[in-house]
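Feature request disguised as a bug report, sorry. It would help if multi-protein outputs had a clear separator. Right now it looks like this:
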Amino acid sequence: MSVGIKDVARVANVSAATVSRVLAGRNVDLAMRERVLAAVRSTGYRPNLAARRLRSRHTNTIGLIVADIRNPFFTAVSRAIENLAYSRGQRVILCNTDEDPAREAMYLQLMQEERVAGVILAPTRDGLANITRTKPDYPMVLIDRAAPGIAHDCVVLDNGAMSEMLVEHLHDRGFRRIAGLFGATSRTGMERRAGFEAAAQRLGLVAEAIAVPHGDGEVAEVMADLLARADRPQALVASNGVTLLAVLRTLREHGLSVPDDIALVGFDNEGWMDIVGGGLSVIEQPVEEIGRTAMAMLIDRFDHPDAATRKVVLAGRLISRGSSLSPISAPSPSVTA
């Protein structure tokens, strides 16, 4: 015999309506939710998704669309989102755009066709403009990238301020000639570039900000040009973890060491970064908080669809390690909140 919602309700000692609310991802007392999910597991209940779609406009599935799944930042944020969704009995469809607006548009249409309950999106720069002109049939929360006047909830890092913090750190360590590599197709890259340029101008540094197209090999090409110059930079800033790794690899291919030949700082704090030489100095992003906040905002939007949109701006922290040491630098690593 097939197991139905009434069977689950009987085992959990709740009403069938409560079971339905849990399975739909609605707000339910945490203890009761756990009881229902335990009953689902013990009875082996499997919802009839086709029938549910016919009865309802939406499923209990969340869409998650990220810009570059290779970027450890998006991997960590995706895990935080999936963990919270799982605890609510919701599923996640994960898509990767590779910073391609056409792929992004295709996946947003896919979410419409799948009747997802909502979408968490890290939009491309061009995609941001399209989002402001369209009204999808589901609530949407933007992560990592946003734009003034956007009509969706969003949670972002204070990118300009964090980039300025890196430049100030290099200045304090005695570096006066720096270059920064920033994503050419990313709103985040634009904001970090603006912070880099503002701090460099304020501190009187010789600085060059370079927009790097998304794709393999682009960083190596830019780096080859920088390193061939007679007045090559004393220090480099990489605007994300993927770029940071590519810069480090290119420096080694050119026989240069960090920080003896050139200093290197960047964004994202991965496990391997503290074992490279004396460790890499980076801005650590609050990835868990970003993921949890985005998911919480989406859930809240389910229950309050007409509420005013919100923008949450979070700060990172500077982790100072050996990659930014100079003759006037302090010898010990430190963490700045």
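(second protein starts here, but nothing in the output says so)
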Amino acid sequence: MPFSLSEEQKQNLVWLIVGILLLSLLAALGPMLSPFIAAGILGYALNPGVDWIARRRIGPVRVPRFVAVTIMVLLLILAALALVLIVVPLVLRQIPQLQAQIPPLLDKLNATVSPRLHQLGIDVRLDLAGIKALLTQQISTSGDELWASVLASARVGGTALLAWAANLLFVPMVLFYLLQDWHPFIKRVQTMIPRRWAGRINTMATEVDDLLGQYLRGQLLVMLVLAVYYSVALTLAGFDSALPVGVLTGLLVFIPYVGFGLGLVLAILAAILQFDGAVGLLWVALIYGAGQVLESFILTPKLVGERIGLHPLVVIFALLAFGQLFGFVGVLLALPASAIVSVIATHVRREYLASNFYNRQS
């Protein structure tokens, strides 16, 4: 008897093939889609703010949605510019001071370390002239030299730089149009869901939305607590640049490792410039070591992991797994993606436990 498919099975097969082709196309267009993905993530985070502003009234008239969208996009751009204006002047101000501090710092290091190594039977002679020249050359790119270095990099990787700049300008534009039509867009997506699955998928989407909302609130709390912690701790340790370095470290904690690393580097530079000896570096090691423990083992598992129903071990595994699979972007998306996977896994488990395959005795 020849194998034949019913009309419904044929339609299912056709749409399955179409879905696979669409997924393949999206995978092929992955690099081009990065600004759209970034805009989608920002749009999801900013849409509640847009809705809140759009519900306000100026006299008898509600605020138009395009005005609310414009306000939120401008606030986002201003926040990004504020971070840049905190970091760049701080770094540019410290580079010349650090350049002047390198020779006496290396002399002091040589005078302290070499005799102790000699007592242990280790004869090491530091090439101070070479080290000084190398470090001075590496950090002396200030002013005109900095711009020359930037231009040289642009000539070497001009295409990549232009693509990066285009994406940077493209994201706010995509974000504006996405926020403007956010609710009609969501409705169009909902109408594309097969009717027999619509109820279940809408339920799952509601649960995912609730979890992601809790994730965002938890992440904001982590950022706020760490910004206060680093600012207060560095201030008590006597750092002159405690406020900008502490706030920057806390606010950039949503980028795993990058925010902590940048804040650590700035704090080390400040310690070298401000303190004599190793006192400043010891304070930095103590403050940032305790901060990393506080973030990794207390704040993130309690304020973020528990809010999205994930065990601390699952949080750590998600960060490692998504980082391994998708690189830096995967680390950024690890926890929210895990929240989505946890909702899907819950429904799959429920269906499995209710299935004949599971319950059949023989």
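Even a blank line would do. Unrelated, but nice: The chain has a mean pLDDT of 76.
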